[in-house]
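Please, structure for the following, as tokens.
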Amino acid sequence: MPATPRIAIVGSGPGGLVCARVLQRHGIPVTVLEREATPDSRSQGGTLDIREDTGQVGLRAAGLLDEFLALSRPEGQEMRLIDRSAALVRHHQPEPGDTGAPEIDRGQLRTLLLDSLTPGTVRWDHSVEKTVPLPDGTVRLEFTRGTAEEFDLVVGADGAWSRVRPALSDAQPAYSGVTFVEVHFDDVDRRFPAIAERVGQGTMWAKAGRLSLIAQRNAGSHIRAYIAFRGPLDWHSGIDPADTEAVRACLLGMYEGFDESLLDLMRQNDGAFVNHPVFVLPVPHTWQRVPGVTLLGDAAHLMPPVGVGANLAMLDGAELAQAVIDRPGVDDAVAAYEDVMLARSAEQAGTAAAILSALMPDTDSTEPAFPDFLG
């Protein structure tokens, strides 16, 4: 192996970018390979609560914690829990100066991380087709464009449908039984003042049994809402997903009995409904070590979206980078990293599954039954 290992990180999500940033801070070259054509190819999604015991640890290692705190929204930690009649059940407001889990839009976080890297670190429009471990301990990445390149360490940070994971594991994500349908509202304070007031500065969650309506304040007077329910993967069978009015009618029928002000989240949204079935990896998800390959974030431990994934990915990225910095070789570094990460992710994934079951029980009860951990 060369004195300076050739390291490739596949995927430019928060975990992969934190890993790259920490490596570069310590003078170790790294290449990030991203299938998207440009940084602005698509929306990066909604808001994230970055927790001081996980995600903020990664940002501190990356030397970016102060910049993050300047961008983040501590007021976004507000939580309003209501029943389907829109009656307030619980209301949590953060104390002044509380930075335990402030919110930041995914796009803002990604830009912060991208801007911290040496120019040219990310190779855009590089989609990996296959990851091939070689007998000498190196790894060949084969790209969809027909080219290939070899590295001493390949880090799969490429999410749920990772193209690196098959080099380590046969595991495939499975449907959890829960679907989130996303809608959004632009310029909400001016155009939808009633919805803005209902949501507040953070998150509003209305639920009854297997049905939930979740709305989150994002930056720039923007709200994203999620129509979340337990149901079959093909819940929309017989409906053209492009037929917005047909999807709307189907969802309104499912949520009959919810207060009219809550149903406005389905009636007044901007644009189409976006279907997000929740997939998860087995718990625990482990593998036999393969020289030159490892995983982080969703590629390693895809969990329900209960505020854990991005935080663990950034912690993974920082710890993997630190192991590479501290250890004499790639194999020692990966072994040290995986020993900690696999045990931690198994515990966290089990907890995340339990949280999802508590939040989205397989019952038709009209009682909200919010778990205590929601504040």
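The chain has two domains: 7-77+99-172+282-359, 176-279. The chain is about 30% helix and 25% strand.
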